[in-house]
Design goal:
Blueprint lengths: L1 E2 L6 H12 L13 H14 L2 E6 L4 E6 L4
Antiparallel strand pairs: 1-2, 2-3
Helix pairs in contact: 1-2
Length: 70
């Protein structure tokens, strides 16, 4: 189920994005990008509709995924 990012409080959205961008295996290439910049990159992709928040009813977990991967 897709959860519209606008329905989350700003604090919850920020925490969700921070958790996403700090997961093991997240790779941003050869240049080190700070946490704030990574959070803003993901927030921008959510606002553009390029990424979505996906909630799994079976696991109770949320994830941020590229819309075109659905």
């Amino acid at each position: 189920m897709i959860i519209p990012w606008e329905q989350l409080s700003p604090e919850t959205l920020t925490l969700m994005i921070e958790e996403y961008v700090t997961r093991d295996g997240t790779d941003y290439g050869d240049i080190e990008v700070g946490l704030e910049a990574r959070v803003e990159q993901v927030r921008s992709k959510l606002k553009q509709g390029v990424a979505v928040i996906l909630f799994s009813q079976s696991t109770g977990l949320c994830n941020i995924v590229a819309r075109d991967s659905l």
